[in-house]
Design brief:
404 residues; mainly beta; Immunoglobulin-like; Chondroitinase Ac, Chain A, domain 3; 3 domains; 7-stranded mixed beta sheet; 5-stranded antiparallel beta sheet; 4 helices; 32 strands; flat
Length: 404
């Protein structure tokens, strides 16, 4: 639309979630203190939030989408303007963003809420170590201060590119803090043995290491967006790096000492992350003697696995010895259910052919228009290597009319 293309759009942006974040000294990430506020629609483009009673510095976050006429697709909004008692405290305009800044989008969103609820919420304030240019550098960076005994009206104006507007109003009453933080819940909970003390503090401004059993983890300087306290442990030869609740800004390095493993085991070993169903997802693993290493960009559960099964290679057509002159393309299916495909090479009559790999369909495709082979006999050979060093070879003879 910014290039002069007119699109019919009479739909105003629609909020999906409103959250608020008290700024505390508990040492917790701000997202851990986030709480929902209920929204009541007044009409199609106005919403009223439940009254918030609190005091001190707070920030807000919003989940929102926009649609255009004749489409069910959900898009983002163009502008979010926030005010307290009529004075603007934040103005976020999604007009342009540099590629270098996209790595800070995980910082801009409530990553913890997304991982727990699969609901995207954007912060209406600038978190520390977030230089995104779409946020205006205003006084307070979008945070607002609430004093006991005072009343406030916080408003959020949402606009799409066609300037369709939605207004959210949040009444705020300043009272002495009455909500219980997670820090207070821990101290007064049944496990009063200070659960917080069991967490490992990973400083933002310095590199640090941690080790237990056969595992060690190196956290480089500024690997998180802020200092972060993690639950780290090893159980049943699996490394538990907290949960995927905190986004990493830089990869961290996992090292596994496999002195107790034999050469055959080490030759087929790799580090993997376990998904929510317990399936191992191969991580790019290097080996030096009996030491395995992998750089990872996600917290969660990791382990060392062994893959001794070679990849599978299959082809529906042509059959062995068949004439295949009318076909324009040759398709082969390759799979590896454990460590995954690492590399492949295909030749016809010992001449290299370029095959396009589609990992979504597990297929290799060769276009005969490349005209690498002029003979009628085509001796196809495909070698596939997985990430654990297992290889498989597939061969088939077929014929095509010369110069076809």
């Amino acid at each position: 639309m910014s290039y002069g293309i007119q699109i019919d759009d009479a739909h105003a942006p629609q909020p999906t979630a409103l959250r608020w974040y008290p700024v505390s000294n508990s040492g917790l990430n701000l997202e851990e203190e986030g709480q929902n506020l209920a929204l009541t629609p007044i009409n199609d483009h106005e919403f009223l939030a439940e009254t918030l009673e609190t005091s001190g510095w707070i920030g807000f976050g919003l989940g929102v989408y926009d649609k255009q006429d004749g489409s069910a697709n959900k898009n983002g909004v163009y502008q979010m303007r926030c005010s307290l008692n009529g004075s603007m405290v934040q103005d976020i305009v999604f007009d342009r963003i540099s590629f270098d800044e996209t790595k800070y989008m995980n910082r801009h969103m409530d990553y913890l809420h997304y991982q727990e609820r699969k609901q995207r919420v954007q912060k209406l304030f600038r978190s520390s170590n977030n230089p995104l240019g779409i946020l205006k550098s205003l006084e307070g960076d979008g945070f607002v201060e609430i004093n006991p005994g005072a009343a406030y009206t916080y408003t959020i104006e949402l606009y799409d590119f066609n300037r369709n507007r939605t207004l959210i109003t949040v009444p705020i009453v300043g009272v002495e803090k009455s909500h219980k933080t997670k820090e207070q819940s821990w101290e007064n909970g049944p496990d009063a043995k200070n659960q917080r003390a069991e967490l490992i503090e990973i400083p933002h401004s310095a590199a640090t290491s941690w080790s237990e059993g056969n595992y060690s983890v190196f956290f480089p300087k500024e690997c998180f967006y802020e200092s972060t306290a993690l639950s780290l442990s090893v159980a049943s030869e699996q490394l538990l790096l907290d949960q995927d609740r905190y986004p990493l800004f830089k990869p961290i390095k996992i090292t596994y000492r496999g002195d107790h493993l034999g050469e055959d085991d080490l030759a087929h070993a790799y580090i993997a992350r376990l998904d929510q169903y317990g399936k191992p997802i191969h991580q790019n693993t290097s080996r030096s003697g009996s030491v395995l290493q992998a750089s990872v960009s996600t917290l969660g559960k990791y382990g060392v696995f062994f893959d001794r099964t070679p990849p599978s290679i299959s082809m529906k057509a042509p059959d062995e010895g068949q004439w295949y002159s009318t076909a324009k393309k040759l398709k082969i299916t390759i799979k590896d259910s454990e460590s995954g495909i690492a590399d492949y090479r295909a030749t016809i009559n010992d001449k290299f052919i370029l095959m396009e790999y589609d990992y979504k369909t597990n297929s290799l495709t060769y276009d005969f228009s490349d005209a690498v082979i002029s003979e009628a006999a085509h001796n196809l050979k495909v070698v596939v290597l997985d990430n654990a060093g297992n290889s498989a070879t597939f061969e088939r003879l077929f014929y095509r009319k010369a110069n076809d």
